[in-house]
Design a protein that fits this description.
The complex is a heterodimer of chains A (about 260) and B (about 240). With about 260 residues, chain A is an alpha/beta fold. Chain A has six helices and eleven strands. Chain B is α/β, with parallel strands linked by helices. A nine-stranded mixed sheet of chain B has the order 1-2-4-7-8-3-9-12-10, with helices on both faces. In chain B, helix 2 crosses helix 4. The longest helix of chain B has 15 residues. Classes of the chains: A alpha/beta (about 260), B alpha/beta (about 240). At the A-B interface, strand 4 and strand 5 of A face helix 2, strand 10, strand 11 and helix 4 of B.
Chain lengths: ~260, ~240
């Protein structure tokens, strides 16, 4: 099977702006894209399937089976703007697969005459702020200057892995202006190795994006999600603390017994 | 051998007989959780003594898997190739397709590919299904975390509706790994109705593929009822 896009409909869009957010650290990109889709009532029009996705399917609550996929949504005429939102339930695991998917996505972007593209990603930081900072990079110096007006800290060096980085990087080769907005996040990982979403980072990104695009966007939903996640993190920290205490206690007792 | 088609440089199918069938269905299973599906399929092969009609080979079939269990491959651990040695023959890892002529049923005894090859080998099987006119597949597998002895999943809502008359409901929610999961997932692209029967089992962390015969039996009973196979289960008991 080759990577393919199945179109459910072909919307007529006027020079749409593409916004992409795939799952990555803290689910920052995906959470942001999902929130946009929900709040802007975006409509699904294309599904991308790839043999480079992890080899499993998801059985949904209704009993239907869903292949791993990426999706394209559209929004028409929001403050005179048309948007294409690109997200999905997974990323290709290999570099080969990620290049393949990005090229297909850029083919679609060219077909729809996309001239500007935003990707949303995570900026892992150990010294993160409660009010998450937004970092940014752009494909042209003029766009970087533009970003500074929106309180975006320019990322001078580093790397952006996965589709969110590669799509931003390769857009230039298709003459598409590209901007990557990165939300500062501690990237919580629970003891089982699973990541926890960081809605605060998504809120920070979307706040900047909404300002740049001059579109109305109610971000209160993400604030609620952030409160909920904080409660979960607090509980996990308590459990971890108790487990460490128990382990230490057991060790001391064992030492005493041997003596 | 009728022909040997290479669908890619790394996966190919040997077709020994291309049957002409009116409305065939396929039943498929592979290595998986507590071997529920694999055992059920082995029983069907033993019971019906079907004819081997096609084999799928692939560079992506390890003999020794890089990670355990075989159905959850690690992208970085591809395993090691090799062959099976039996008393009088050598066997190369492959997917075997059998025909029960009397019932127009293809039995597909799957084999787990490594992380990179699962889509490609499944597509090769589906191409073969298309050539012989398969319109429906039933995948057999195990599930944990539920109360129902057998539950189901499908690739379209009408099949789920149809299963209600057999008392089957979709109780399992979550990932479905490996050959059988991808077969069910990709079947919609080939206009094939896909149903999965999941037999309830318990996880065995030390040996995830440790056979659960009871769960396999439950799946077989339900399959027999759905297809009206009239299988004599006395040997199984």
């Amino acid at each position: 099977m080759e990577c393919k896009i199945i179109f459910l409909k072909k919307p007529v869009l006027k020079d749409p702006i593409m916004i992409a957010g795939l799952p990555g650290f803290g689910y920052v990109g995906k959470l942001s894209a999902d929130y946009l889709i929900e709040k802007l009532n975006a409509e699904l029009f294309g599904e991308l399937y790839s043999p480079f996705f992890p080899p499993y399917v998801l059985v949904k609550e209704n009993g239907l089976v869903e292949l791993m996929k990426n999706e394209f949504y559209f929004v028409k005429n929001i403050n005179n703007l048309d948007l294409i939102i690109f997200t999905g339930n997974t990323q290709a695991i290999s570099s080969e697969g990620q290049y393949d998917i990005v090229e297909k996505t850029l083919d679609l972007a060219k077909d729809f005459n996309v001239k500007k593209l935003f990707t949303m990603a995570a900026y892992i930081s150990e010294s993160y702020n409660e009010e998450r900072k937004v970092y940014g990079v752009a494909s042209r110096i003029e766009l970087i200057e533009e970003l500074k007006k929106y309180n975006v800290e320019i990322m001078k060096e580093g790397s952006i892995s996965g589709i969110n980085g590669l799509l931003f990087g390769l857009a230039k080769t298709r003459n598409i202006d590209s901007i990557c907005l990165l939300g500062e996040t501690p990237s919580y990982i629970i003891p089982s190795g699973r990541m926890i979403a960081d809605p605060k980072a998504s809120k920070a990104i979307l706040s900047v994006l909404a300002n740049i695009l001059n579109i109305p966007l109610d971000l209160r939903g993400l604030e609620k999600q952030a409160q909920y996640m904080e409660e979960i993190i607090r509980k996990i920290e308590e459990i971890e603390k108790r487990a460490i205490e128990e382990a230490t206690k057991g060790k001391k007792e064992r030492v005493g017994y041997i003596g | 051998m009728v022909n040997s088609i290479k669908y890619s440089r790394k996966t190919w199918i040997k077709i020994f007989e291309k049957p002409i069938l009116k409305s065939p269905i396929a039943i498929a299973a592979s290595q998986g959780l507590r071997s529920v599906g694999r055992l059920a399929l082995e029983y069907l092969i033993e019971y019906f003594n079907p004819k081997l009609i096609a084999e799928v080979y692939s560079y992506y079939f390890p003999l020794i898997y890089g990670s355990k269990p075989s159905y959850i491959p690690d992208p970085n651990l591809t395993g090691e190739a090799g062959i099976f040695l039996f008393e009088k023959e050598i066997e190369i890892p492959c997917i075997k397709n059998y025909l029960i002529n009397s019932h127009e049923i293809i039995l597909t005894y799957g084999y787990q590919a490594d992380f990179k090859g699962q889509y490609e080998v499944v597509e090769t099987v589906l191409e073969f299904y298309k050539e012989i006119g398969i319109k429906k597949i039933i995948v057999l597998a195990g599930y944990t975390g539920g109360d129902e002895n057998v539950c189901c999943a499908a690739n379209n809502p009408s099949i789920l509706k149809e299963m209600e008359k057999y008392g089957l409901k979709p109780f399992y929610k979550g990932p479905f790994y490996g050959f059988s999961g991808i077969l069910l997932g990709l079947s919609k692209f080939y206009n094939i109705d896909g149903l999965c029967l999941f037999g309830k089992t318990k996880p065995n962390i030390e040996d995830p593929e440790d056979p659960d015969i009871e769960a396999s039996k439950n799946v077989l009973y339900k399959l027999s009822e759905i297809l009206n196979l009239k299988i004599d289960f006395s040997n199984l008991e």
